[in-house]
Design a protein that fits this description.
This protein is α+β, with helices and mostly antiparallel strands. It is about 35% helix and about 25% strand. It has 2 domains: about 130 residues, Trna Endonuclease, Chain: A, domain 1; about 100 residues, Alpha-Beta Plaits, CATH 3.30.70. Strands 1, 3, 4, 5, 6 and 7 form a 6-stranded mixed sheet that branches. Strands 8, 9, 10, 11 and 12 form a 5-stranded mixed sheet that branches. The chain has a two-stranded parallel ribbon with strand order 2-13. Helix 5 crosses helix 6 and helix 7 runs antiparallel to helix 8.
Length: about 270
């Protein structure tokens, strides 16, 4: 009988296969790391999490000490040969934790086409890539125009990043902007952003650029109220991304790693 965990292709499997088929293609390599960081990974634990403290199962390999994580729960169960404690963490959160502890990552080991080992230096690079914090500046937008010359890779990366930001804003608009000092640049304008979500939205846009592979690309991020006159001007010329609000659900207990301001602790 064929193991479904090895045959059902996930987005991470597809990105890994594309990277492996063209090892010299930096864009495909970056696309794989984008899938790794944006998705949820299931980290195998030695014991159930205690609040924000996690005790991952550690493996000593020739390449160094690693933890193992999987992009599906059933793949973790296959590896562990049965039910096992785990923590579901965003890939970007796990990358930061492992980098701080000097640990590597065994990804989908032995149970998926994307089975691979990412040693500690690879996790340190990934965490460093994700580390930059958006710089806040105050500039007045005087004119907006239709975007032009935006690489397809950037548009695809933004589309994917903004789809994951559903509920954090009403919409996003991509335009060419002219500022009060005469400078021109690409502007990603968010309308009706959820209070407190500005940094997360700006970071998502920055990571989309980083993993798109576009060189020297820059996009300014702005936030506008829905009744701001600038929104009407954007609607006439800008490329719109809808950030559909999810249906309201009853609140669930916060899982370790779900709050980026309070990353879990590895023990």
């Amino acid at each position: 009988m064929t193991d479904p965990a090895m045959t059902d292709v996930t987005p991470l499997d597809a990105a890994h296969a594309a990277m492996e088929a063209a090892p010299d293609d930096d864009a495909l390599r970056l696309s794989f790391y984008a899938r790794l960081t944006e998705g949820e990974l299931y980290l195998l634990l030695d014991a159930e999490a205690e609040g924000e403290t996690l005790s991952p199962r550690l493996f000593d390999l020739e390449e160094g000490r690693v933890v193992v994580a999987f992009d599906r729960e059933d793949r973790l169960a296959d590896f562990a040969e049965g039910p096992a404690p785990y923590a579901a963490l965003p890939g970007r959160v796990l990358a930061g934790l492992l980098a701080r502890e000097g640990l590597g990552l065994g990804l989908n080991l032995g149970v998926a086409p994307s089975s691979m080992l990412l040693p500690a230096p690879a996790m340190a690079w990934l965490a460093e890539t994700l580390e930059p914090t958006p710089e806040e500046v105050a500039e007045r937008v005087t004119e907006v125009f239709a975007p032009k010359g935006v690489p397809d890779a950037v548009l695809k990366a933004l589309d994917a990043a903004l789809a994951r930001a559903a509920g954090l804003a009403g919409a996003a608009w991509l335009a060419l902007a002219r500022y009060g000092d005469g400078r021109e640049g690409m502007l990603l304008a968010f309308t009706e952003a959820t209070p407190g979500a500005e940094t997360a939205l700006a970071r998502a846009a920055g990571e989309a650029l980083t993993f798109s592979g576009a060189e020297a690309a820059r996009i300014d991020v702005g936030f506008f109220a829905g009744n701001d006159p600038m929104v009407q001007r954007l609607a006439r010329v800008a490329l719109r991304f809808d950030l559909t609000l999810p249906e309201e659900k009853a609140p669930e207990p916060a899982a370790p790693g779900s709050n980026p301001a309070r990353p879990p602790i590895l023990r």
